[in-house]
Amino acid sequence: MKYIYIIYENIEYWIELDKDDYALRQIIVDNGEIEISCKTDCLAEGVILLDELDGDVKIIDNIVFETKWNEVLLNTKTAWEQKKSDYPIGKKVTGTLKYFYPQGAVIQLEEIQGICANKLPADSTVGSQLQCIVSGYDESNFWIILTLAK
Protein backbone atom coordinates (compact mmCIF):
# COMPACT_ATOMS: atom_id res chain seq x y z
CA MET A 1 0.00 0.00 0.00
CA LYS A 2 0.97 3.60 -0.60
CA TYR A 3 -0.47 6.62 1.14
CA ILE A 4 -0.52 10.15 -0.23
CA TYR A 5 -1.57 13.53 1.06
CA ILE A 6 -2.37 16.28 -1.43
CA ILE A 7 -3.26 19.92 -0.93
CA TYR A 8 -4.73 21.48 -4.05
CA GLU A 9 -6.63 24.78 -4.06
CA ASN A 10 -6.93 24.61 -0.24
CA ILE A 11 -8.57 21.18 -0.39
CA GLU A 12 -6.92 18.24 1.39
CA TYR A 13 -6.93 14.77 -0.14
CA TRP A 14 -5.83 11.75 1.89
CA ILE A 15 -5.62 8.64 -0.29
CA GLU A 16 -4.71 4.99 0.27
CA LEU A 17 -3.48 3.29 -2.92
CA ASP A 18 -3.30 -0.42 -3.64
CA LYS A 19 -0.32 -2.11 -5.33
CA ASP A 20 -1.68 -1.08 -8.75
CA ASP A 21 -2.14 2.57 -7.66
CA TYR A 22 -5.93 2.48 -7.50
CA ALA A 23 -7.50 4.36 -4.60
CA LEU A 24 -8.98 2.11 -1.91
CA ARG A 25 -9.88 4.70 0.72
CA GLN A 26 -10.02 8.47 0.53
CA ILE A 27 -10.76 11.48 2.68
CA ILE A 28 -11.48 14.94 1.27
CA VAL A 29 -11.43 17.97 3.56
CA ASP A 30 -12.80 21.11 1.91
CA ASN A 31 -13.28 24.19 4.08
CA GLY A 32 -14.15 22.08 7.13
CA GLU A 33 -16.53 19.79 5.21
CA ILE A 34 -15.38 16.16 5.19
CA GLU A 35 -16.19 13.44 2.66
CA ILE A 36 -15.00 9.91 3.24
CA SER A 37 -15.11 7.10 0.70
CA CYS A 38 -16.80 4.62 3.03
CA LYS A 39 -19.79 6.97 3.31
CA THR A 40 -20.00 8.83 -0.02
CA ASP A 41 -18.91 8.20 -3.60
CA CYS A 42 -15.75 10.29 -3.46
CA LEU A 43 -13.08 7.72 -4.32
CA ALA A 44 -10.67 8.76 -7.06
CA GLU A 45 -11.31 6.85 -10.27
CA GLY A 46 -8.67 5.04 -12.28
CA VAL A 47 -4.96 4.66 -11.71
CA ILE A 48 -3.39 7.48 -9.69
CA LEU A 49 -0.22 8.67 -11.44
CA LEU A 50 1.75 10.58 -8.81
CA ASP A 51 3.81 12.55 -11.32
CA GLU A 52 0.62 13.84 -13.00
CA LEU A 53 -1.12 15.14 -9.86
CA ASP A 54 -1.60 18.86 -9.29
CA GLY A 55 -0.95 20.54 -5.97
CA ASP A 56 1.45 19.77 -3.16
CA VAL A 57 1.78 15.95 -3.13
CA LYS A 58 3.43 14.13 -0.23
CA ILE A 59 3.97 10.45 0.40
CA ILE A 60 2.89 9.68 3.98
CA ASP A 61 3.11 6.50 6.01
CA ASN A 62 0.18 4.29 6.90
CA ILE A 63 0.16 5.46 10.54
CA VAL A 64 -0.48 9.06 9.48
CA PHE A 65 -3.27 7.96 7.13
CA GLU A 66 -4.86 5.60 9.66
CA THR A 67 -4.75 8.29 12.35
CA LYS A 68 -6.65 10.69 10.08
CA TRP A 69 -9.06 7.94 8.96
CA ASN A 70 -9.86 6.97 12.55
CA GLU A 71 -10.21 10.62 13.58
CA VAL A 72 -12.79 11.23 10.86
CA LEU A 73 -14.73 8.06 11.75
CA LEU A 74 -14.57 8.52 15.53
CA ASN A 75 -18.22 9.52 15.87
CA THR A 76 -19.33 6.61 13.66
CA LYS A 77 -18.05 3.73 15.79
CA THR A 78 -21.03 3.48 18.15
CA ALA A 79 -23.49 3.51 15.26
CA TRP A 80 -21.34 0.90 13.47
CA GLU A 81 -21.56 -1.50 16.40
CA GLN A 82 -25.35 -1.12 16.40
CA LYS A 83 -25.54 -1.74 12.63
CA LYS A 84 -23.57 -4.97 13.00
CA SER A 85 -26.18 -6.22 15.47
CA ASP A 86 -28.95 -5.11 13.06
CA TYR A 87 -27.25 -7.06 10.24
CA PRO A 88 -26.04 -10.37 11.73
CA ILE A 89 -24.08 -12.80 9.58
CA GLY A 90 -26.49 -14.94 7.57
CA LYS A 91 -29.25 -12.31 7.36
CA LYS A 92 -30.90 -11.96 3.94
CA VAL A 93 -31.14 -8.36 2.75
CA THR A 94 -32.16 -6.40 -0.33
CA GLY A 95 -30.10 -3.42 -1.39
CA THR A 96 -29.65 -0.96 -4.22
CA LEU A 97 -26.49 -1.03 -6.34
CA LYS A 98 -24.94 2.43 -5.89
CA TYR A 99 -21.52 2.32 -7.58
CA PHE A 100 -18.43 0.22 -8.17
CA TYR A 101 -15.16 0.44 -6.24
CA PRO A 102 -11.99 -1.65 -6.60
CA GLN A 103 -13.17 -3.67 -3.58
CA GLY A 104 -16.48 -4.55 -5.27
CA ALA A 105 -19.97 -3.24 -5.79
CA VAL A 106 -21.23 -0.81 -3.13
CA ILE A 107 -24.81 -1.61 -2.18
CA GLN A 108 -27.06 0.67 -0.14
CA LEU A 109 -28.90 -1.12 2.68
CA GLU A 110 -31.28 1.37 4.25
CA GLU A 111 -28.93 3.75 6.09
CA ILE A 112 -25.70 1.72 5.77
CA GLN A 113 -23.63 0.51 2.86
CA GLY A 114 -22.48 -2.97 2.03
CA ILE A 115 -19.78 -4.23 -0.28
CA CYS A 116 -20.20 -7.24 -2.56
CA ALA A 117 -17.12 -8.70 -4.24
CA ASN A 118 -19.11 -11.38 -6.10
CA LYS A 119 -19.53 -11.19 -9.83
CA LEU A 120 -22.90 -9.52 -10.29
CA PRO A 121 -25.58 -10.72 -12.72
CA ALA A 122 -24.98 -9.45 -16.25
CA ASP A 123 -28.07 -7.21 -16.14
CA SER A 124 -26.94 -5.39 -12.95
CA THR A 125 -26.74 -1.63 -13.33
CA VAL A 126 -26.61 1.26 -10.90
CA GLY A 127 -30.02 1.34 -9.25
CA SER A 128 -30.57 -2.44 -9.53
CA GLN A 129 -32.08 -4.19 -6.52
CA LEU A 130 -29.95 -7.11 -5.34
CA GLN A 131 -30.74 -9.92 -2.93
CA CYS A 132 -27.75 -10.61 -0.70
CA ILE A 133 -26.68 -12.38 2.46
CA VAL A 134 -24.57 -10.75 5.16
CA SER A 135 -21.29 -12.68 5.24
CA GLY A 136 -19.04 -10.46 7.37
CA TYR A 137 -17.91 -6.97 8.26
CA ASP A 138 -15.28 -4.62 6.87
CA GLU A 139 -14.11 -2.98 10.10
CA SER A 140 -11.92 -0.46 8.30
CA ASN A 141 -14.66 0.96 6.07
CA PHE A 142 -17.67 0.23 8.31
CA TRP A 143 -19.27 -1.75 5.49
CA ILE A 144 -21.41 -4.86 5.71
CA ILE A 145 -19.80 -7.58 3.57
CA LEU A 146 -22.36 -9.19 1.29
CA THR A 147 -22.57 -12.20 -0.98
CA LEU A 148 -25.25 -12.57 -3.59
CA ALA A 149 -28.19 -14.72 -2.54
CA LYS A 150 -28.81 -17.74 -4.73
So what's the overall shape? globular
Helix content: 10-25%
* Strand composition percent: over 45%
Number of strands: 10
Class from helix and strand fractions: mainly beta
Distance between the termini: 34 Å
Q: Give me the Rg, rounded.
A: 16 Å
Q: Unreliable segments (pLDDT under 50, ≥5 consecutive)?
A: none
**Average pLDDT figure:** 92
Q: What is the count of distinct domains? A: 2
Report the sheet with the most strands, covering strand number, pairing sense and barrel closure.
Answer: 5 strands, antiparallel
Helix count?
A: 2
Instruction: Give the strand order of the largest sheet, numbering strands 1, 2, ... along the chain.
Output: 4-3-2-1-5
Along the chain, the helix and strand elements come as EEEEEHHEEEEE
Structure description:
The protein is mainly β and 150 residues long. It has 2 domains: 2-78, no CATH class; 87-148, OB fold (Dihydrolipoamide Acetyltransferase, E2P) (Beta Barrel). Helix content is 15%, strand content 45%. The protein contains 2 helices and 10 strands. The longest helix is centred in the middle third of the chain and has 12 residues, at 62-73. It starts with a strand and ends with a strand.
Quick structural summary:
The protein is mainly β and 150 residues long.
Descriptive keywords:
single chain; mainly beta; OB fold (Dihydrolipoamide Acetyltransferase, E2P); 2 helices
